[in-house]
TrEMBL record:
Disordered: region residues: 163-183
Domain of life: Bacteria
Protein name as catalogued: VOC family protein
CDD domains: VOC
Residue ranges of domain VOC in the record: 124-238
Listed Pfam families: Glyoxalase_6 (PF18029)
PANTHER family on file: CONSERVED PROTEIN, HYPOTHETICAL FUSION PROTEIN
Organism per entry: Nonomuraea guangzhouensis
């Protein structure tokens, strides 16, 4: 069986503060993380946790992934107001007024969008409508095979996948893909099923186009890989699923 997406991880200068923001905004429960961070547990069909992990590195570049948050009916304004009250702020990334979405940043500068009501692409998604990613068509194909999630969009080099069990879509916007200048501030944690084999799963992912990388991890149980666009992700031991 293929690995499961168990977590989306944020590097955070203040893991507790960042976790409190997202727990308040999403309505998720916080719990201590075995890797010295904070984990948020979903209470909907999202299907993966959010982990806030400590780092001393400061954010200097736009993230490769951001949340597209949905809004129902007239709730976009209230959703934005709630985010601002929790510590978010408005930012300008070149969005046009006619696009309708509101671009915000969380307390550590991680970008996210609040999408207006009536968006057909996210119509059947929950509050986290999508993990919108900067990436190539090739990387969309890779993640479809890596997670065994079907492609739900594949046009003009833009791709999207979604778990058969629902939850957010993961999208890749196609070219031009912003050059990668350093380690991403957000990454996926995967884990084989409890009866799976970490080494065999790593070999499978490498056969699909991943590469083994060294980011200074030593004495830990996870294996760090990069997808075809160079984005880091971790394969955890089966017990982490």
């Amino acid at each position: 069986m293929t690995s499961q997406l168990v977590a989306l991880c944020f590097d955070a200068n203040d893991p507790l503060g960042l976790a409190r923001f997202w727990a308040g905004f999403l309505g998720w429960e916080m719990t201590d993380d075995p890797h010295e961070g904070i984990t948020l547990l979903p209470n909907d069909d999202t299907g993966f946790r959010i982990r806030c992990l400590p780092t001393e590195e400061k954010k200097t570049e736009p993230n490769q992934i951001h949340f597209d948050m949905t809004s129902n009916h007239a709730d976009q304004e209230r959703t934005v107001e709630r985010a601002l009250a929790l510590g978010a702020r408005h930012i300008d990334v070149g969005q046009l007024p006619e696009e309708g979405h509101v671009v915000l940043a969380d307390p550590e500068g991680n970008e996210f969008c609040v999408i207006p009501p009536g968006n057909n692409f996210l119509a059947d998604c929950g509050f986290i409508g999508a993990l919108a990613s900067d990436g190539s068509q090739e990387v969309g194909y890779f993640w479809s095979k890596a997670l065994d999630w079907p492609l739900v969009w594949d046009q003009d080099e833009e791709t999207a996948i979604r778990s058969p069990h629902g939850g957010p879509k993961i999208t890749w916007g196609g070219p031009p893909v912003r050059p990668k200048t350093g380690k991403n501030r957000m990454h996926f944690d995967l884990a084989p099923p409890a009866d799976g084999d970490q080494r065999a799963e790593v070999d499978r992912l490498v056969s699909l186009g991943a590469t083994r990388i060294d980011i200074g991890q030593h004495g830990v149980g996870h294996v760090v890989l990069a997808d075809p666009d160079g984005n880091e992700f971790c394969v955890l031991p089966p017990s982490a699923a």
